[in-house]
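General statements about sequence and structure are easier to judge against a single worked case. For one protein, we set the task of working out the structure tokens from the amino acid sequence alone. The sequence in question and its structure tokens are set out directly beneath this paragraph.
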Amino acid sequence: MSSHKPEQRHLFVRGRDFHFVTYDGQPANERRGEAAVPPMWFLMGPAKRWPVMPHVVGQSDEDVEKAMMNWLTAQGLGRLPKNAKTG
């Protein structure tokens, strides 16, 4: 039985709400050729979720949110570039 406790975070960026949830890891399945997957943070969407980063127990809220923002930015969903025109 897993001791994983799900966590959630909401980030509001550029007028959008991004919902992140942790899921427990999965052990490797040699018969199917699947590698083990650690506990992860996922971005939730309608009927879909996207892996974002490993879930590290005890990581500070500030570090988690900074890493999520970095991921959003790398996906083109985060902060506007400094030279971007708005409106």
Notes: The beta strands are 8-13, 16-23, 40-45, 48-54. The first strand starts at residue 8 and ends at 13. The chain has a mean pLDDT of 87. The chain has one domain: 8-68.
